[in-house]
Amino acid sequence: xxxxxxxxxxxxxxxxxxxxxxxxxxxxxxxxxxxxxxxxxxxxxxxxxxxxxxxxxxxxxxxxxxxxxxxxxxxxxxxxxxxxxxxxxxxxxxxxxxxxxxxxxxxxxxxxxxxxxxxxxxxxxxxxxxxxxxxxxxxxxxxxxxxxxxxxxxxxxxxxxxxxxxxxxxxxxxxxxxxxxxxxxxxxxxxxxxxxxxxxxxxxxxxxxxxxxxxxxxxxxxxxxxxxxxxxxxxxxxxxxxxxxxxxxxxxxxxxxxxxxxxxxxxxxxxxxxxxxxxxxxxxxxx
Length: 287
Hints:
By secondary structure, the protein is an alpha/beta fold. The protein has 2 domains: 30-165, Sulfate adenylyltransferase, CATH 3.10.400.10; 174-263, Rossmann fold (3-Layer(aba) Sandwich). Helices cover 38% and strands 16% of the residues. The chain contains 10 helices and 9 strands. It has helices at 2-21, 31-34, 44-54, 67-76, 130-138, 146-152, 180-190, 206-215, 238-251, 269-282, and strands spanning 39-41, 63-64, 91-93, 106-110, 118-127, 157-165, 195-200, 221-226, 258-260. Strands 1, 2, 3, 4, 5 and 6 form a 6-stranded mixed beta sheet that branches. It has a 3-stranded parallel beta sheet with strand order 7-8-9, covered by helices on one side. Strand 7, helix 8 and strand 8 (221-226) form a beta-alpha-beta unit. Helix 5 (130-138) packs antiparallel against helix 6. It is globular and about 60 Å long. The two termini are 17 Å apart.
């Protein structure tokens, strides 16, 4: 049963990547040409969403959701094609920011002060009910809930469309960043067939060490995946978490049996939690 589930989920992920990177799906545009497009200013979290759609982390998503997928996810926890997905991944804007933009056009995305990061081919522009969003996704519309507060602060209109990354974001810990394709490649290069993933928001302690050492007794290798970015108050700093794992790998674990890697996830802690659940259980990294 588990093998069948793994095969099915891997096929879903592989199919998503094949759709995403197949040629001819989206027009090619240079960064210079993109500077002349109508521009929408967004936050870093949305740009991370763009990159995660583009690199396959959000597979089977291949674009910002349209109304059909959006409604299906809210009502059923599944995309319109019946693939599991539990939270809308959407591009939200205020009406005043998109006046003059029409479906069928291409727009550029960037931070308020910055070069064009990416483009979106606008396929659909539609409105949504924030209260319904909150109740369906978070089970409450109480603004004390961090996800509800974020939703309240979102724009009033959603834009659906395929994305193209032109200038990826740079972060302090880029050397640790691995896309799904890069992670799979690292596993293949090491000849790993069975991998145990260990996700953490803390520095390693004796309990972590015991679990990881136990995993090495039956698996080919372990993938250590620290959550880097905003966390709850009192959590360890990112640089401390990464430095301690670097020391552990360098001085204690067999180097050829450990991969340390992270991805760029949105700053919304609730979304991070949901995406990580999807990543762990519905989008395996090993083909």
